[in-house]
Design a protein that fits this description.
The protein is of the alpha/beta class. It has ten helices and 15 strands. β10, α7 and β11 form a beta-alpha-beta unit. The chain is globular.
């Protein structure tokens, strides 16, 4: 049997306080999902991305070093900040994910986020209020069994896509669970779907119709593959589209929209995003640096949207918005 080609691992040794910032930085530079390994004995984190092709070592080291200086300038203690580029067996990459990617459970907890009374007063019966239909995201090799009425999403890590562990993605997943109403038809739009995890989770939770798109054709391919793996391909419409080129007047409005995008794109395209939201719908914005959450909140307040739930974890902020 022909052996698989090796991978190239780019790693940065850092502190637990800076691991998320370093992971986001490496993911952005290499357009790949970052894996984080924390050594409990040494209190040191190692953040890694894996590449099919050998990186240009001097150039990449210089880019990473410059970004590490920028992160340190924000007040985060980097620790060693050691950069390493090494060739590894593809099997080692797969096994490293198996050791460090654990199942993610999304229970309903009303007090988990800062929340306004407006969210509590919305009509409909939430799934949590009838015993709780949570969510379990797990890799295919996990033997963890779901709880009663718990929807299950099977998602294996890929070279370019994460697994829902990032704080912004997990916030979106939690909001999908929080806002699901039993016995009602709720539509969902996923803007910038990536691996398709939110669209798949929405379909598993009973949202319909579920529409999702991404500008990157590889994202659309992977999202379709994950939808097939989870037996919900026929319940999701996945397309390639650019949020900046969406029609100004949409053909459909949605009960819930997730836009896990950089804040600049959220703000510049806020009209296109908001025009697709129903008057009593919920808009979830994620992928925002915590220091920019206030800027995003003010931008969407101009369109009569109010922040009703938020979460800040490490340097990341996410929020849910409803019309005033």
């Amino acid at each position: 049997m022909k052996s698989l080609k090796p991978l190239w691992r780019v790693s940065v040794t850092t502190s637990p306080a800076a691991e998320e910032a370093v992971a986001e930085m490496l993911g952005g530079l290499f357009n790949a999902a970052a894996a984080i390994y924390f050594n409990l004995e040494t209190d040191v984190s190692t953040v890694s991305v894996f590449c099919d092709l050998k990186p240009e070592a001097p150039k990449r080291r210089a880019e990473i070093a410059a970004e590490l200086r920028r992160i340190a300038g924000c007040g985060l203690k980097l620790g060693a900040g050691r950069i390493e580029i090494a060739k590894v067996k593809r099997e080692d990459w797969a096994e490293s994910w198996k050791r460090h990617f654990h199942p993610l459970e999304i229970p309903f907890r009303r007090d988990e986020f800062h929340e306004s009374p407006h969210l509590k007063s919305k009509s409909g019966t939430r799934s949590s209020e009838q015993g709780g239909q949570g969510l379990l995201v797990k890799p295919s090799w996990s033997k963890k069994r779901p709880r009663k009425n718990q929807a299950v999403v099977i998602l294996d890590p890929g070279l370019s896509f994460g697994t829902g562990q990032h704080p912004t993605t997990s916030f979106c997943l939690r909001e999908l669970v929080r806002n699901r109403k039993i016995g009602t038809r709720q539509s969902f739009l996923d803007i910038g779907t990536g691996s398709g995890i939110l669209a798949v989770a929405a379909a598993k939770l009973g949202y319909q119709p579920v529409h999702a798109f991404d500008f990157d054709p590889e994202s659309v391919r992977v999202a379709r593959e994950n939808a097939r793996k989870n037996l919900v391909y026929g319940k999701i419409r996945l397309t390639r589209a650019d949020v900046t080129r969406l029609p100004v007047k949409p053909a459909r409005k949605y009960d819930m929209i997730c836009a896990n995008l950089i804040s600049n794109l959220q703000i510049s395209e806020k009209r296109r995003i908001v025009d697709r939201l129903k008057p009593d719908g919920t808009l979830v914005l994620a992928g925002i640096l915590a220091v920019e959450l206030g800027v995003v909140e003010r931008a969407f307040a101009d369109l009569k949207l109010r922040l009703v739930a938020q979460r800040v974890e490490n340097e990341w902020g996410s929020g849910s918005f409803c019309f005033v």
